[in-house]
Amino acid sequence: METREPEVIRDKEAMRRWSRGMRSQGKTIGLVPTMGFLHDGHLSLVRQSLTLSDVTVVSIYVNPGQFSPTEDLSTYPSDFSGDLAKLAAVSSSGSVIAVFNPKNLYDYDGGRNKKTISGDGRGGGKVVSCVEEGGLGHETWVRVESLEKGLCGKSRPVFFRGVATIVTKLFNIVEPDVAMFGKKDYQQWRLIKRMVRDLDFGIEIVGSDIAREKDGLAMSSRNVHLSAEDRQRALSISRSLAMAKASAEQGQTSCKELKNMIISELVGAAGRIDYVEIVDQETLQGVEDIKSGVVVCVAAWFGTVRLIDNIEINVTV
Ligand code: AMP
């Protein structure tokens, strides 16, 4: 099969021109936002986008706005040429993929007006993102007020504000018809869907199933930082989620019992738990007894790596 090197676009005006050029030819545009270091999870989103739209834009951009200064922005893995090769392998003859790889989406004036937060560099004790710490005067943020608060939002207070803002920027630059998000980041997917509804973006948001390694580990760019031992221990996440789902399907409706089952597996594997929550699939509010569709969400540290995973349970009682 013929493969095509994706076209790489680094400038946001050029990106917009490319998209508008495609649209003027009557083509529909799919967007797959990523932070690069692509794996099969990302590629499954790209494949789905290729089936849903005429051309696909894969953005590769590690968004400083969603990291706090204490998080792993500087060690986030990257392999740009490897990413291009993987995308070339995915694109079959006739399919068009462009890669949008901007240098800095928060730099509005070439860095001439660099503004930093005074005091300790962290906004005087306020929680800030890397953009505010060494920032360039960005001050407009998109908040999805309830959905951003629970689950990952508790330990990462600027994360979803950064995600919603960068996705808005990408939507405004790429102007896609459809955008793909992985259910691996369940809260992110729900939040973006809500943002699109609330702010009337004319973009369809598609949620894609979690791609897993053969042994069950949810694929993640961060897995590369796991030691062999921690990787083995981290299998307790997917294993305990599957056990909880099986137990719920056999009639266990108590979320306390199900959460305890997961917690004991994770603790038994020396995981440091951030949260284990069972929440309504749409509102992401905690549930005590399973009566309708829920999602079981886990975040836990193995060694220096924070991993997230989840499983939907659709039993009705
Ligand atoms: P990231 O590069 O981690 O920001 O992820 C980019 C997109 O890929 C997001 O929509 C993620 O939810 C999605 N994604 C990441 N890992 C997986 C996976 N294992 N399965 C499905 N989608 C994923």
TrEMBL record:
Molecular function as annotated in GO: ATP binding; pantoate-beta-alanine ligase activity
Reaction catalysis annotation: (R)-pantoate + beta-alanine + ATP = (R)-pantothenate + AMP + diphosphate + H(+)
Keywords carried by this UniProt record: ATP-binding, Cytoplasm, Ligase, Nucleotide-binding, Pantothenate biosynthesis
Domain of life where this protein originates: Eukaryota
Pathway connected to this protein: Cofactor biosynthesis; (R)-pantothenate biosynthesis; (R)-pantothenate from (R)-pantoate and beta-alanine: step 1/1
InterPro entries membership: Pantoate_ligase, Pantoate_ligase_C, Rossmann-like_a/b/a_fold
Major localization class: cytoplasm
Keyword ATP-binding (UniProt): yes
The protein's Enzyme Commission number: 6.3.2.1
Protein name: Pantoate--beta-alanine ligase
Protein's organism: Brassica oleracea (Wild cabbage)
